[in-house]
Amino acid sequence: MSERLIDMRSDTVTRPTAAMREAMLRAEVGDDVMGEDPTVNALQERAAALFGKEAALFVSSGTQANQIAIKAYTQPGDEVIADALCHPVRSELGAAALISGVQLALIPTERGVYARAQAERMFRSTNWMQPKSALLWVENTHNAGGGTVFPLEALDGLRALSQDRGIPLHMDGARVFNAVVASGVAPAEWGKRCDSISFCLSKGLGCPVGSILMGRREFIARARRLRQIYGGGWRQAGLLAAAGLHALDHHVERLAEDHANARHFAQRVSEIRGLRLVYDDTQTNLVFLDIAESGMKADDVSKRLRAQGVALAMRGGCTFRAVTHLDVSRADVEQAAAALKTALA
Ligand SMILES: Cc1ncc(COP(=O)(O)O)c(C=O)c1O
Q1: Are 52 and 192 within 8 A, CB to CB?
Q2: Is the C-beta atom of 87 inside 6 A of ligand 1?
Q3: Which helix (H) or strand (E) holds 108?
């Protein structure tokens, strides 16, 4: 067994770099529940300015950002219009139902992207027995959709729809910086098309913890109250915010390397017999693989990979997800592709 694990299960597995740890050590801190942590305040102000939003809130996770946003915009019994593959449906333990008491009107999509006409069909009539359509939800990049960048024209259509119908549009931008780098569309361009938007620091940006939720001042004030209710108020969180500021300075442009490595990996593994790429284009840092044609069990392949020092995420059935990130080099993806070939031989 190799000493070092090439861990391509997720971009959340990165460990803070030495320079990031230095920045954390130097952080000035205060009590953030009292709004007095200067480093948290600096991070929030910087993020809000970057995305053209009035205010921002530093929260502990992407899930917390999502659940705060859903709760802030809805009443129990309301409906959220989203794509059927979105993170709150697949990977948040039914929290939208549990916490906010909402139901989700889910649009079937190929890669998590949908257009105005599809969303329009999901709106309920004004019949008093129907739930209220309260929120439009998009995910960018789309995780289960294979790291897809939400096309700007589709987003423009949804923006117009949300304005016509008078309901907010929220973007789960856990990996929106991957979208920024892949598309060249600036953060403020995404920000201005949505009422609110989040991003994760703990994914491709390489921080240990944290996400940012941004929107109008009143929305963020409500979000702050909800964060407290969920036990998410934190005190000297400036240590973590310092990592976030460091990441915004040093880890955004380099996402292009992750994208190039993901494309390289996809190209290499597409040559392996018995393996199929689930999505034929690799837009950002996520690659989905299907090994059904090999006739092997995912469990067995995973064990064979581990024995060669490689970890991919098992996504159910015969599907794996491979993710490139700060701790995965070009040589690592070469090695991972070779290990996969051996495991499927
Ligand atoms: C699109 C998307 N939203 C939200 C989350 C949740 O983030 P966290 O793991 O920080 O709760 C994830 C995590 O992978 C994600 O991919």
Answers
A1: yes
A2: yes
A3: none
Residue 1 has a pLDDT of 46
- Is the CB of residue 139 below 6 angstroms from any atom belonging to ligand 1? yes
Rounded to the nearest whole angstrom, what is the distance from the C-alpha of residue 345 to the centroid of ligand 1? 34
Contact assessment for residue 74 and residue 136, using Cβ atoms and an 8 Å cutoff: no
Total residue count of the chain as it appears in this document: 345
Q: Give all domains of the chain, ordered by start, each with its CATH number.
A: 18-250 (3.40.640.10), 254-343 (3.90.1150.10)
200 lines ligand 1 (CB under 6 A): yes
221-249 pLDDT, tens digit each: 999 999 999 999 999 999 999 999 999 99
pTM above the 0.90 mark?
A: yes
Give the pLDDT of residue 125.
81
Look up residue 304 and give its two tokens: 């064979």
Number of separate helices (H) and strands (E) present in the chain:
14, 13
| Nearest in space to 30 (alpha carbons), one of 43, 17, 20 | 43
92 within ligand 1 shell (Cβ under 6 A): no
Instruction: Please give the biggest Cα pair distance in the chain.
Output: 63
d(CA 4, ligand 1 centre) in Å: 26
- Which runs of consecutive H residues, i.e. helices, occur in the chain? 18-26, 38-51, 62-73, 87-91, 95, 116-120, 152-165, 176-183, 187-192, 217-229, 238-250, 255-269, 298-307, 330-343
C-alpha 126 to ligand 1 mean position (Å) = 34
Distance CA 84, CA 222 (A): 27
* Ligand 1 center from residue 344 Cα (angstroms): 30
For ligand 1, mutation pick of 58, 64, 89, 91 (most atoms within 8 Å of CB):
91
- Look up residue 132 and give its DSSP letter: P
What is d(CA 254, CA 249) in angstroms, rounded to the nearest whole number?
A: 10
